Structure to design on (143 residues):
C-alpha cells in the first residue's frame, strides 16, 4: 500500500526500496504501533477527534448519536496514509507535505477536512453504512 505510489517515481528496484525504507522507518511505522509519540496513530486519532469536536461539533455529535463514530471511518485512511484512497498524484502531494513538515499530523488534518467538506451530506445520514457511502473516495478523488 505504501510502495505502489512510489513506483510511479522510481523505476529502479534498488532506488525504490531505499526510498520506501526511508519513508517507512521515518514515518509510516508510527501508524502501526501504539505509542505516545506526537506522530503516532494514537495522537493522530486524538488530534482528529479534537479538530472535529472543536470546529464541527454538530456533525461530531450527530455522527456519534447515530452510532457512526467519525474515527471508525477515518482510522483506515490515517493508518494507510490515504494510500488507496486518493489518486496517485494527490497522494504523492500529501506525502510531500509529510516530508516538508516532518510530521504525520497532516493526516489527521486532512481526515478532518474531508469531514468538513462532506458535512452537509453527513448531517443527513442515519447510520454508519450511509455515512461511509456519503464520504467515500474513488480512485480519481472524491465521489
Amino acid at each position: 500500500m505504501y510502495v505502489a505510489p512510489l513506483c510511479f517515481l522510481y523505476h529502479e528496484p534498488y532506488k525504490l526500496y531505499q526510498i520506501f525504507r526511508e519513508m517507512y522507518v521515518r514515518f509510516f511505522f508510527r501508524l502501526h504501533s501504539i505509542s505516545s509519540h506526537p506522530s503516532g496513530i494514537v495522537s493522530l486519532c486524538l488530534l482528529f477527534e479534537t479538530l472535529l469536536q472543536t470546529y464541527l461539533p454538530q456533525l461530531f455529535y450527530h455522527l456519534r448519536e447515530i452510532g457512526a463514530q467519525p474515527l471508525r471511518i477515518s482510522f483506515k485512511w490515517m493508518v494507510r496514509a490515504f494510500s488507496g484512497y486518493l489518486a496517485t498524484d494527490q497522494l504523492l502531494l500529501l506525502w510531500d507535505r509529510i516530508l516538508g513538515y516532518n510530521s504525520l499530523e497532516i493526516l489527521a488534518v486532512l481526515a478532518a477536512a474531508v469531514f468538513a467538506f462532506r458535512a452537509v451530506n453527513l448531517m443527513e445520514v442515519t447510520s454508519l453504512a450511509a455515512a461511509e457511502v456519503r464520504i467515500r473516495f474513488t480512485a480519481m478523488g472524491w465521489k
Q: What stands out?
A: The mean pLDDT is 91. The radius of gyration is 16 Å. The first strand starts at residue 137 and ends at 138. The beta strands are 137-138, 141-142.
